[in-house]
Design a protein that fits this description.
CATH topology of the largest domain: Dihydrodipicolinate Reductase, domain 2
CATH superfamily of the largest domain: Dihydrodipicolinate Reductase, domain 2
Largest sheet: 9 strands, mixed
Strand content: 15-25%
Strand order of the largest sheet: 14-13-12-11-7-10-9-8-15
Shape: globular
Number of strands: 15
């Protein structure tokens, strides 16, 4: 054990020495909406310098330069990697363009953070992980909700044995009427799917993280499209989506079985005839259960059924703050060799679950996850 500890310390010291007195140089591949949230977070970090941006749309590059003052702009990420040689790359492209730049960046010796979902399918995820390992660089996935105070509170309780064995988890990422009216979220060939892969992914990943990351072994599910591909006059917060190019589901329901016998169910929608939007997961264990929002514990004490809620779990709940935390974890992992909270392997596990639900929906039966 002592030799392992010394070896780990030695590697950490070597990494820190490499970046000592230097700023960690980051380039963006994809300069659209989510890139702006990344930029706002990184600009708070004095040890980070954003050195380049890549996008296929000239207007986005112009806006990126005007807003953030980044002058090295490219349409081709391979050219950028060769000329700029950044330390790290943040990938903020549509889902279908996550794997290729991540692999190229890793092969160029760059650390990588990719927005969720990790890629379009498990095979792409495995190639991303292999490239990072081969080139000895860090690969992390942008799963900010595992850093949320509610998630951290419940995970601490689980780690302390509060719930016993988790048997069942119910995840919900439901919008009553929330089809994105920007970007390419409605195009399956570029995104891989609709609400399941876009927003369901967040609740799945934080619930799976809370559960202790058991291995998924089977999936079943179904998807329905009944409104997104049609014009609508219904008054809603996000009107006028592009129904003509809409090829994803409106509603997806799935179930995942794990190797420890636990079950996770997921409900995800862009459109659903429900009372209100829902963003939550609840769970049942052999010793207790609970709820993510509001955070609550359900257990038995002194021969009495008890419902309890925390007085304070932390106030780092804003979208911007969560992005700052996840990016800080990536930067520290790259420059100090500290553990990554959401490594590529976590992204692969979540991708296998998403892929399983979609494969089951297409096949009309339960499918195996390998």
């Amino acid at each position: 054990m002592a030799e392992k500890s010394v070896g780990t310390e030695s590697l950490a010291m070597k990494v820190e020495k490499k970046y000592e007195g230097k700023k960690f140089r980051v380039a963006f591949i994809g300069c659209g909406g989510i890139c702006q949230t990344h930029m706002a977070a990184l600009r708070q970090m004095p040890d980070v310098e954003v050195v380049a941006g890549v996008d296929i749309l000239p207007e986005r590059l112009k806006q990126f330069q005007e807003r953030w003052g980044v002058t090295k702009l490219y349409k081709d990420w391979k050219k950028m990697l060769k000329e700029v040689k950044p330390d790290g790359v943040s990938i903020c492209t549509p889902n279908g363009v996550h794997a290729a730049p991540a692999i190229d960046a890793a092969n160029a010796g760059c650390h990588v953070i990719s927005e969720k979902p990790m890629a379009m399918n498990p095979a792409e995820c495995e190639k991303m992980i292999a490239a990072a390992k081969k080139n000895k660089v860090k690969l992390t996935i942008g799963f900010q909700y595992r850093y949320h105070p509610h998630t951290q509170f419940l995970k601490r309780a689980r780690d302390n044995g509060e719930f016993g064995d988790i048997m069942f988890v119910k995840c919900q990422a439901l919008r009553r009427r929330g089809i994105p009216n920007w970007g390419v979220f409605g195009q399956k060939k570029l995104q891989g799917g609709g609400p399941m892969i876009d927003i369901g992914v967040h609740v799945i990943e934080m619930a799976h993280y809370f559960m202790g990351s058991p291995k998924p072994v089977a999936a079943s599910g179904n998807t329905w499209t009944y409104m997104g591909n049609k014009p609508s006059k219904v008054v809603c917060p996000w009107p006028n989506w592009d129904y003509k190019t809409y090829t994803v589901e409106d509603l997806a329901i799935g179930q995942i079985r794990f190797d420890n016998g636990a079950i996770l169910q997921i409900e995800a929608s862009f459109v659903a005839h429900i009372e209100k939007d829902v963003w939550n997961f609840s769970f049942m264990g052999t010793k207790g259960g609970g709820n993510w929002d509001p955070p609550a514990l359900f257990s038995d004490h002194h021969d009495t059924m008890i419902n309890s809620s925390p007085y304070f779990v932390g106030d780092q709940t804003s979208f911007d703050t969560l992005f700052t935390i996840k990016l800080r974890n990536w930067i520290d992992g790259c420059t100090k060799n500290t553990p990554l909270e959401a490594p590529g392997e976590a992204g692969l596990a979540v991708q296998k679950m998403l892929d399983g639900v979609y494969r089951s929906a297409a096949a009309g039966r339960e499918v195996t996850i390998k």
